[in-house]
Amino acid sequence: HSRPPRKRMVELVLLGWEREQRLLESGCSPKEIRASTKSVRMAQKKRQRTLKKMKYWRKHVRREEQRVHVRTMLRMEKRYSQQEDELWSRANDSTLKEQTSSGNKVRSTASSAARGSFTRAARNSFTRVASARNSFTAKARAA
User: Fold this and answer.
1) Residue 3: helix, strand or coil by DSSP?
2) 25: part of which helix (H) or strand (E)?
3) Which pTM was predicted?
4) What SS3 string covers the chain?
């Protein structure tokens, strides 16, 4: 069984009017032809949009990874500040207990001053992270 030679691409392509004529001869209505032509054009546009998006998919993945990282950092800052507050209050409580049990005059001003400077440093760190997040968000909106 020998097969006929393959057709070339040029032989497979039909002109629009010729295709329409063949469809009308085979029993398709003009309305059906218009509807199918419209659906084909819509599918082509969707494919073009998908290809355009795929061109930038790495950029989108990187941007999402950065968003997740910033959110994680902000949650960690919050957790660290809460832990810090708990540690300082425990340390202050134990210092007060030791001072009262030994009969010394209670002086909590030194520990609160140290806590204040440490809290300011933590607040500054949080502010830096927040400003980085804001600049990242602004860049993302601009792009």
Assistant:
1) coil
2) helix 16-25
3) 0.34
4) CCCCCCCCHHHHCCCHHHHHHHHHHCCCCHHHHHHHHHHHHHHHHHHHHHHHHHHCHHHHHHHHHHHHHHHHHHHHHHHHHHHHHHHHHHHHHHHHHHHHHHCCCCCCHHHHHHHHHHHHHHHHHHHHHHHHHHHHHHHHHHC
CA separation for the pair 92, 87 (Å, rounded): 8
Helix 57-102 × helix 109-142 angle, to 10°: 170
Pairwise CA distance, residues 117 & 20, whole Å: 82
Per-residue pLDDT reduced to its tens digit, 19-40: 999 999 999 999 999 999 999 9
Could you give the CA distance from residue 95 to residue 98 in angstroms, rounded to a whole number? Answer: 5
20, 92, 94, 101, 138 from 97: Cα distances, Å = 95, 9, 5, 6, 50
Which among 84, 94, 93, 86 has a CA at the least distance from the CA of 117?
84
Per-residue pLDDT tens over the stretch 131-142? 766 676 666 666
**How many CB atoms within 10 Å of residue 101?**
8
